[in-house]
Amino acid sequence: MPFGALQQLLGVELSPQQARWAARTLIHYVLGFVAEEQNHAELIRARIATSAQRPDDGDVAFRFGVTAILRGLPAPAGRGADSLTRAGSREVLSATQESSDRLY
To answer: Is the pLDDT of residue 7 over 70?
Structure first.
């Protein structure tokens, strides 16, 4: 996995573990998006769903998701981005540690 390229793309210093997590997040997002597209195509072939049942904005939605992963979502109106980022980072780190503890 080209972790150095990912760090360069993000423009930040990442630890090797963070680079692996970031790469895994992107890979899971891409695979999940592709799986959903394939599942919907199968449902259409089986006549369980129609193409009209889904919005025709898949490319835009995909790009939005990748951008949200790489750059983050904007802070809600009226809240400072710094305080939101610090609070969010603490919550993510705490949840990550709890999940990791349960796995091992």
So the answer is: no
Q: Do the beta carbons of residue 40 and residue 48 sit within 8 Å?
A: no
pTM attached to this predicted model: 0.61
Instruction: Encode pLDDT of 25-76 as tens digits.
Output: 888 999 999 998 899 889 989 998 887 767 778 889 999 999 998 888 887 7
How would you class 50 by CB atoms within 10 Å of its CB: exposed for 0-12, middle for 13-18, buried for 19 or more?
Answer: exposed
DSSP state letters, 13-65: ---HHHHHHHHHHHHHHHHHHHHHHHHHHHHHHTTSS-GGGS-S-HHHHHHHH
6 and 22 in contact (C-beta within 8 Å)? yes
Domain of 95, in residue numbers: 77-104
Same domain, 42 and 69: yes
